[in-house]
Design a protein that fits this description.
454 residues; alpha+beta; 5-stranded mixed sheet; 12 helices; 19% strand; disordered C terminus
């Protein structure tokens, strides 16, 4: 006898017939899990001001209708977190699929929250915030307002849940199972919680124009591609964060924290050199993981700068590095920069394993810092849902592989602590045969302030 069957699930994906239904189901599933899996609600809501206490009570409601001057508002959800006398509440606006948040609707909820004492407005969608700001233009929320507005992407929620599952762990087996069910549901294509998988409709034309050298600031879609690159960096940071269990942040160069200035700078680079850049900061690593996308060469590069130890010679400094990355790919490039030198010298890791002096060049100058570089051909295929996402896959794979094989292997060099000096006491005439070493830091007893305290 043959039988076909599906495992019963707490949150089934079957039966989702419309975008609206996907949105309602995703909202209900998330809010219900937040009331039971406290670790997840702490992770997502405490940065917005909700109580962090493990024993706080979380209440959630969906499809809320609230009278407001004769015109009811209908947020997708309402959250309340209570611990003792402290209570925090938030209105939710949720979008799934390719639906975008609307500024007018968010502003309306913000006005209502200010009038009624609600603490926060939370939006959830597939839009990624590239600089920590809300992705919806046109919000009139004041920076000093008592009522905050925060955005969570579905990707951020999935990554947070995975990070708790893989690294923190949940002792309660029922809560762990609930979290698993939420992750499984949100990662299903029918849930409407999409991962970052598209560089946009203008990607192919911008990529080709960059290679041909015809790209200008007025090229149609160039701002969209640059913004999506910024979002891809954010997505890569969240993915790596979920894998290692630590926060990974996108960092920007000096003067580029402003989104508009950063966009303009990236567009200039794309037009003049066909390149886009970015960097990820991972806690306790020897340096930032930096990325360079060269659209003209159709090549991606990941690299990290590492300070060389200063307590040994040139060969010893290279040996110190090779000893830590011995298992890295043989084609990894080791660049050496002497102090105040404008140019570097280099060799592959395979060559450096054979000869420690290989990356030092002819003058054998002591390296002041190293740069370790790995490169990959830019993916051009269509891997996800027919979209041109080979580029995205190449970036994500490069970040994960380079971190695992190189960055996480390196322990930064630290200058040794200064040593205590010792001196000999004068030799008395009757003690010529015996010399006593006395530490210069020894106290004379009794200590001057010992008697005062007594």
């Amino acid at each position: 006898m043959k039988a076909e069957m599906q495992r019963a699930r707490l949150i089934p994906v079957s039966g989702i017939g419309s975008v609206q239904e996907a949105e309602q189901r995703a909202t209900s599933a998330l809010l219900a899990i937040l009331t039971k899996v406290r670790d997840l609600s702490i992770e997502l809501l405490s940065p917005m001001g909700a109580p962090r206490a493990q024993r706080a009570e979380v209440e959630a409601f969906i499809e809320v209708s609230i009278a407001n001057s004769g015109r009811p508002i209908r947020p997708d959800g309402l959250l309340r977190v209570t611990y003792g006398k402290k209570s925090w509440s938030a209105l939710l606006e949720v979008k799934t699929g390719s639906n975008l948040l609307e500024a007018d609707q968010i502003n309306k909820y913000w006005d209502f929250a200010r009038e009624t004492g609600i603490d926060h407005v939370v939006t959830i969608s597939n839009e990624l915030s590239s600089d920590g700001l809300h992705p919806t233009p046109g919000l009139r929320v004041r920076a000093n307002s008592r009522v905050g507005v925060s955005h969570l992407s579905w990707t951020e929620i999935i990554m947070s849940a995975n990070r708790i599952k893989k690294h923190k762990g949940i002792s309660d087996p029922e809560q762990a199972w609930l979290l698993d069910e939420l992750i499984r549901y949100l990662q299903h294509p029918k849930s409407g919680a999409l991962q970052f998988e598209d560089m946009g409709a203008h990607w192919a034309s911008i990529r080709d124009a960059a290679r041909e050298g015809t790209l200008t600031r007025r090229s149609d879609g160039i701002e969209d591609v640059v913004d999506r690159w910024d979002q891809l960096l954010r997505y890569a940071a969240m993915q790596l964060s979920a894998e290692i269990g630590n926060d990974v942040e996108v960092i920007y160069g000096r003067g580029l924290t402003d989104a508009q200035r950063r966009r303009s700078n990236q567009i200039d680079s794309l037009c003049t050199s066909g390149q886009m850049t970015g960097a990820l900061r991972i806690p306790d690593t020897a340096g930032d993981l930096q990325l360079l996308a060269d659209l003209r060469a159709r090549r991606l590069s990941a690299f990290v700068d590492v300070h060389a130890p200063q307590d040994r010679g040139a060969r010893g400094r290279v040996s110190w590095l090779v000893g830590q990355i011995g298992e890295a790919p043989a084609d990894l490039v080791v660049e050496c920069f002497a102090k105040n030198a404008r140019l570097s010298t280099s060799a592959t890791l395979a060559e450096t394993r054979e000869d420690r002096l290989a990356p030092l060049g002819e003058d054998r100058s002591e390296p002041h810092r190293f740069r370790l570089i790995t490169r990959a051909e830019m993916g051009m295929g269509r891997k996800r849902g027919g979209r041109n996402s080979g580029f995205i896959d190449t970036v994500l794979d490069l970040v994960t592989d380079f971190y695992g094989s190189v960055v996480q292997q390196i322990t930064p060099w630290q200058r040794p602590a200064p040593k205590l000096t010792k001196e000999s006491t004068p030799v008395e005439p009757d003690q010529k045969d015996e010399v006593v070493e006395v530490d210069t830091f020894s106290w004379q007893q009794p200590h001057p302030w010992t008697d005062i305290q007594r």
